[in-house]
Amino acid sequence: MEFINRHIDRRLKTIRFRIDHGSRTNDGSVDNSRNFIVMPYVKGLSENVKRILNRCNVDFVYSVPKRLNNVIKLGKDVVANNQQMGVVYELSCVEYESVYIGQTKRHLETRVKEHKSNICKKDSCLSVVSKHRLENDHNFDWNNCKVLHRENHRRKREIAEMFFIMRQCNAINLQKDTDDLPPVYDTILGNM
Question: Which among 181, 62, 54 has a CA at the least distance from the CA of 189?
């Protein structure tokens, strides 16, 4: 209650000063427009404050601090990382600091399962993730795949993937994965 009274007193002093001395505009003329104050509605107090302020030529506007939309959260449910689509992601090697950065338009969980099962294919069809696993006897942290960026537009997602590959010094991605990155990004990445 003390806070409210102090706030009202301070605002009233400012308003009285402006009324007594007149607010000057940029061209030097006096601005005689009505002032207003915004305060939360408090039953019993707000009516009295409004009556007093009206005598001072001040409008009183009520605000409602607890609105229904603050209590009831609207919007979409949070989607789990592995169910997200249109993402650039990072898979981390458990035994070493190596990472693989990829992108997918499908559910991330589906793409991670493909990486996991790719090791069973012929040598000529192995992905860089599977080659890293076989050559180094390492494994990846399949359950903690990190989403780096979300983008539904394919070309923008591919550029974002190349951007993250270039930024990551421990990426096991093939160098040709960044061949299509426009040269304008070289200077940006060089400054990071």
Answer: 181
Fold of 84-190: GIY-YIG endonuclease (3.40.1440)
**What pTM was computed for the model?**
0.58
Three-state DSSP class for residue 24: strand
Backbone angles phi, psi at 94, to 5 degrees: -70, -40
pLDDT of res. 13: 81
Domain limits of the chain?
36-63, 84-190
pLDDT in tens, 135-166: 999 999 999 999 999 999 998 898 889 888 88
Query: Scanning the structure block, which residue is given the tokens 């000529």?
Result: 124
Residue 57, both tokens? 């030529």
Q: Which residues of 28-57 are buried (b: 16+ CB within 10 A; e: fewer)?
A: eeeeeeebebebeeeeeeeeebbeebeeee
